[in-house]
Amino acid sequence: MKIQQETQLFQAVVDLPLGKIGVRTEAGKIAELCYLPPHFDAKAPQDAVAEIAVHQLRRYCDDADYVFDLPLCTVGTPFQQRVWDAIRSIPRGSVRTYGELASHLGSVPRAVGQACGANWFPVVIPCHRVTAATGLGGFSRSDDPNGYLLGIKRWLLAHEGSSEYAWQQTTLL
Description:
The longest helix has 15 residues, at 48-62. The protein contains 7 helices and 5 strands; from the N terminus they run H-E-E-E-H-H-E-H-H-E-H-H. Helix 4 packs across helix 5 (109-117). It has a 3-stranded antiparallel sheet. By secondary structure, the chain is of the alpha+beta class. The chain has helices at 2-7, 48-62, 78-88, 98-105, 109-117, 148-159, 164-168; strands at 12-16, 19-26, 29-36, 96-97, 130-131. Helices cover 38% and strands 14% of the residues.
């Protein structure tokens, strides 16, 4: 019963090579994209905006150079939006550390990490391109005991052509 209730939160649940993503829409825009644990069942799009999102997510999985053009709700604080804009500027196949982004933004790594964690539109705002100075970092939560989120991050970085060596040899924006 709980899984069915959780699935009802989304207008679509798409099963992709990286894992499952829930699509929540509101007033003709994408309100949230959410990485979901493997136990979620796929759910066909329930509205036109969810259908567009599912189509674009699939296109991205077929082509890492695909550029998203989704109507996104405006969310986040001004600082979070600055961080997300900086993340969007990281080219495919590249990564930056939390510290590098923080330095670029005149902030601190922890604040950048919190803004990454507050990203309502993962993949579209590619927070997977931000890593810890010592490795992958991020994408870890207490409610992810099996590590599906880190698996998603690894898939996304590999899909975009990042190598493990490159993750540790980054330069500032």
